[in-house]
Amino acid sequence: MIESLGTPPVADHAKAPTWRHRHLLDVDQLDHAEIERCLGLAIEMRSLRDRGERLDLLRSQIVGLAFAEASTRTRVSFEVAAAALGAQVVDLPIEASSVTKGESLIDTLRTLERTGVGTIVLRHAASGAPYLAARSVGARVVNAGDGTHAHPTQALLDALTLRDALGTLEGKRVAIVGDIGHSRVARSNIHLLTALGATVRLVGPPAWVRGFEDWPGVSISHELEEGLRDADAVMALRVQLERDAGGGVPTLREYTARWGLDEERMALAARDAPLLHPGPTNEGVEITPELAASPRSLIGRQVSNGVAVRMAVLALLAS
Amino acid sequence: MSAFGRVTDAPASFVLVGARIVDPSLGTDAVGDLAVVAGRLVDPAAAPTDLPRLVGAGLLAMPALCDLHAHLREPGDGRTETIESGSRAAAHGGYATVCAMPNTDPPLDERARVALVVDLARDAACRVRVVAAATRGREGERMTEVGELIPLHIVGISDDGAAVASARVARGILAYLAPLDLPLIEHAEEPSLAVGAVMRSGRTATRLGLSGWPGSAELSMVERDIGLAKETGGWVHLTHLSTAAALEAVRRARARGTRVTCDVTPHHLALTDAWVAGDRGFAWEEPTGAVADPFRTPLDPELAYDSACRVNPPLPTREDALALLEGVADGTIDAIATDHAPHPRERKAVEFAAAAPGMIGLETALSVGLAAVEAGRLTLPDLVVAMATRPAALIGEERSLSPGALADLAVVDPQARWCVEPDALASSSTNTPLLGMELPGVVRLTVASGRITYRDGLDSAR
Prior knowledge:
The complex is a heterodimer. By secondary structure, chain A is an alpha/beta fold. Chain A folds into two domains: 163 residues, 3-Layer(aba) Sandwich (Rossmann fold), CATH 3.40.50.1370; 148 residues, Aspartate/ornithine carbamoyltransferase (Rossmann fold), CATH 3.40.50. Helix content of chain A is 41%, strand content 13%. The radius of gyration of chain A is 20 Å and the shape is globular. The two termini of chain A are 13 Å apart. Chain B has a single domain, classed as Alpha-Beta Barrel (TIM Barrel). Chain B is built from 13 helices and 19 strands. In chain B, strands 1, 2, 3, 4, 5, 6, 17, 18 and 19 form a nine-stranded mixed β-sheet that branches. In chain B, strands 7-8-9-10 form a four-stranded parallel β-sheet. Chain B is globular and about 65 Å long. Chains A and B meet through helix 6 of A and helix 5 of B.
């Protein structure tokens, strides 16, 4: 099938050594060569899509989307990616709190697996849920975000987007601003960015950055100005609006006053330093609408890279 | 072949020949014989010559163990654990006595319920003493009618699973108990600091994105309880201590003469928070992998977020576990208590944060203790004091191997190793992260109240 496409890079991929991972649970499981292979394949997927070509690497396969937590862009991104590879995509009905229904996550996934689903894309509110799923079912499991633990495809698409803008991540300083402690995006990004040679500054109120001090390659800053100074790239996180008083900041208004990103503050960063945000943004809270729409903002680029990265991941797991 | 007995069986008579006998109450640690006639220890030199003779060479004989804290789940669902199955687990683990905790369904908060447990335990495989609920319905408001429970030989009262959250109620309980020589057994945890927490806060919790339980949750409640005990003259027993800071508070309070005692579980001595990330090294081992660098050690997909490691208080940091071992060695910690907490499979085969907290421990406690002895972290007498002599003394039982005493003894092969697997366990539940591991120490004989309650492959001597 692949040969008939006449796209040598993808053919190279087919000849590459067998992908050793059955699941993608977090980026920490990938060695350097595997990260490069994943990002490289994503670039090829992106150009295929740009040329309007379709692949059928996953023809006759069923990819099940099990989203136990509200998500639009990640779900749609996986759906488009799987369809672009020729897979049949089905929604798997997973309750946000299956325990209350008396049916466990394992029971539900095992039942759904019997319908022939070969890959389960799982979004779940509990950290570690994909590990439980991977141990319990025969299907491949892709972590589409688990609690406050990991979001590996987000980290991969962020790395791809940053490399597009910066050329390399080796020696770059990336500032991540917001509620790091509750962010699966931040954790996976720290793993991947440091693996690719960048250093990471975590910026936010003390309660939101506590605990990360000993992570190799990571520094902590409670002051936005200090954290942004000379940063090569800045990543804003979505502030969860319910986490105000008692959750680390007195009010959201005070968060915005002290850590909200605007164009003036971004000027402290390196010239033309790109801005990323995993979305959806709370404009006027963690980021101003003007900044989100400015040339620095790669938010739209992240979304399109997301499809390419997820195509690459699904293709590699199926190889 | 192993076999269980009951505390109502015919009293045993035998001679154990040539075992290493460790009895801290007598200060003895020497090879010798132990003779039991009609359930009582007698001077071996004066024992009848026709007694069955058992080979003790290479074995360790000690006073039978006493567990201050176990959940036997009866009354309950009847399949997670019962007094029958739990007492067999105890006998298999070398215990003659188990204190049953009151958070059953319904809870042990009134005379009829406590009497039911006492009655059900009459012919169990170990003696069962009851810890009654501290407050009615374990709701933390109205104190249990303790007076009418004293004839049932309760060992204390506790709302275990939680502390008595109201300082006013706890103060009233301690004042009421003071002249009765009964402890308030506290699960020391400040609820507002523990809300939502599923593992010990620290590097591993940060790495795993699991909500962290700060050490201050334990310390603040321990400090409160010490203050209340000092003021009222009441006796507070802090169960399952898990932090070095709380241990230090206890050490200081005892030096001032406050009536505070405490216990620690085997899993807080030997396991660490890194186990939640999939590490399986004991606390005293050289840190590697997730213990040495939790951030850059890839998670093991087979072991990460294993709900068997979800327990409350949560598994400690390595530093805290090592401090607790020192607390056992220096005597600040009175006892090693299991917090044996059986759960059915479906309460554990769920996401880590959704799993019921707790692990079983009656059958592995002695082995874990012996592993600490092998590692040089405890002496054998330290271990016997903490698992048998002192906990028994706290609940008014004697543990002595001197002639004349009713026989309560355990005989262990410290060289033999066994694999923790479901078929090897007498408990009705199997929730322990030790499953699949090989541990030192196989119990060969348990004698409780002069009856053989467990025996496994002891040879007869000529």
